Amino acid sequence: MSIMRPTRNLLLGLCPMLVLGFLYYSSGKLHFRVWGQKPQPEVDPILSVGRIVGPVYDKQGFLVKLDGKLPAELMYKYGNLSEGACKPGYAAAKMTAIYPKFVKPAPMFLDQNFKRLAKVSNYLPPFGFKTQEKIIDVILAATKKYGLGSDLDSLACKRCIIVGNGGILANKSLGSHIDEYDVIVRLNEAPVSGFVKDVGSKTTIRITYPEGAIQKPERYEKDSLFVFSAFKPLDFRWLRQMIFKEKPRVTEGFWKSVAQQVPREPSEMRILNPYFIQEAAFHFIGLPHNNGLMGKGNIPTLGTVAITMALHNCDEVAVAGFGYDMSTPHAPLHYYETVKMSAIKESWTHNISKEKEFLRKLVKAGVLTDLTNGI
Ligand SMILES: *[C@@H]1O[C@H](CO)[C@@H](O)[C@H](O)[C@H]1NC(C)=O
Ligand SMILES: *[C@@H]1O[C@H](CO)[C@@H](O)[C@H](O)[C@H]1NC(C)=O
Ligand SMILES: *[C@@H]1O[C@H](CO)[C@@H](O)[C@H](O)[C@H]1NC(C)=O
Questions:
Q1: How far is CA 310 from CA 18, 258, 307, in A?
Q2: Which of 201, 257, 330, 337 is most buried (CB neighbours < 10 A)?
Q3: Nearest alpha-carbon partner for 309 in 278, 352, 287
């Protein structure tokens, strides 16, 4: 065991408080209105001289001037649809309008051709699957399924919602609205039972990493897909044990206790494409590349990873339960427990403020609909 491990555990140990992602920055800073401040765009000096007219992009490649208006070509495409109809390709089209580098195709889950995914084959977890190919082959041979299921896969237009775990979701009675989406994504151990009025009753996929997985077998909902997101090589071993119903022998290396069993058939389990972690970290948010290795402040939260997945795989994307409601400073951190916002420490793995800058761009441009207005 290397001396690196305690450090890494410490790093990762700060994670659970931030499970849904991106709740909060620090209460002191909130008072100074950092929350509402726009990031200063880093403008190309040549452009800022004013000789070249045209769209100006920030360092990450996002249009600096964002508004919710539809570009003319999209107006033509979607203008005739009746109010409320699902707009095919809408999220990706709006994303491309503000971020021209966006390339839509990126499969949601790994399938048996995963080694052909060039962008992830040369990165170690969490940004790719290098070194884990053999174990992934074994896992995928057992799950045998790689999609959402035939009904959803064949939908001409999919509306997805990512339900974050934030306290901002409590007491808003959004449950029946959330249930109207085609794909309802929940994160880690966020409960449904007992909170249906506010968070809805359906779960299409539940994305989780080992430390975040529901530990009590009876708490798993019936119909959802168990979607695994790996943050470290060890996580794949845990998944293999869960799939083959082995007792996990290795408990060392996790930053908290992990589930001992996942009451799911292999055919109900999927591996999330690690490209979404890579793209969120290095392209969208602009976290330190660190030679492609996990390091201080370069891991996106699971909520942002799920949003990135949805941009590639859904026609319309909404979120709820993200962010922090400033009007209730003593609000609970999560909708399902009484821990207060003030319990949060600054994280070493995530960069919450940078992540929030990215999400604000998406909401401002109307790429994402934020049902709880917390972003
Ligand atoms: C929308 O309606 C207008 C007027 O009826 C028509 O000219 C246009 O071609 C339609 N656009 C699409 C994308 O169908
Ligand atoms: C929601 O309402 C319940 C019951 O009125 C209350 O106990 C709880 O604190 C409320 N939660 C939030 C986040 O306002
Ligand atoms: C987050 O990013 C900002 C700006 O790049 C940087 O100053 C800050 O140190 C980062 N925080 C963490 C926790 O890495």
A1: 20, 27, 5
A2: 201
A3: 278
Asked if the bond preceding 126 is cis, omega within 30° of 0, the reply is yes
Query: Could you tell me if 153 and 321 are in contact, meaning their C-beta atoms sit under 8 angstroms apart?
Result: no
Ligand 2 atom nearest the C-alpha of 331 is 13
Q: 183-187 and 368-370: which strand pairing?
A: unpaired
What is the CA(86)–ligand 3 centre distance, in A?
A: 38
Q: Is 73 in the pocket of ligand 1 (CB under 6 A)?
A: no
205 DSSP β-pair partners: 185, 225
Ligand 2 center–CA 288 separation, angstroms: 39
At residue 48, the pLDDT reads 53
pLDDT for residue 197: 98
Query: Are the beta carbons of 163 and 190 closer than 8 angstroms?
Result: yes
Q: What is the pLDDT of residue 344?
A: 67
- Count CB-CB contacts under 10 A for residue 297: 17
The pLDDT value given to residue 2: 42
Query: What's the pTM?
Result: 0.86
DSSP secondary structure string, 79-119? TTSPTT---TTHHHHHHHHH-TT------SB--TTGGG-HH
What distance in Å separates the CA atoms of residue 97 and residue 120, rounded to the nearest whole number? Answer: 25
Q: CA 204 → CA 27, 39, 183, 272, distances in Å?
A: 34, 35, 5, 14
Minimum-distance ligand to the CA of 357? 3
Q: Are the C-beta atoms of residues 271 and 138 closer than 8 Å to each other?
A: no
Q: What is the mean pLDDT of each run of 10 residues along the chain (375 residues)?
A: 44 42 37 42 52 86 93 90 93 96 97 97 97 98 98 97 95 97 97 97 98 95 95 94 86 88 96 98 98 96 98 98 74 87 76 94 98 95
Q: Which of 154, 171, 119 is nearest to 292 (CA)?
A: 119
Give strand pairing partners of 207: 187, 227
CATH class of 72-370: alpha beta
Nearest CA to ligand 3 atom 3: 354
d(Cα 125, Cα 128) in Å, to the nearest integer?
5
Contact status, residue 371 vs residue 320, Cβ threshold 8 Å: yes
User: What pLDDT does residue 331 have?
Assistant: 78
Beta carbons within 8 Å of 258's beta carbon, 6+ residues apart = 210, 211, 213, 215, 238, 248, 251
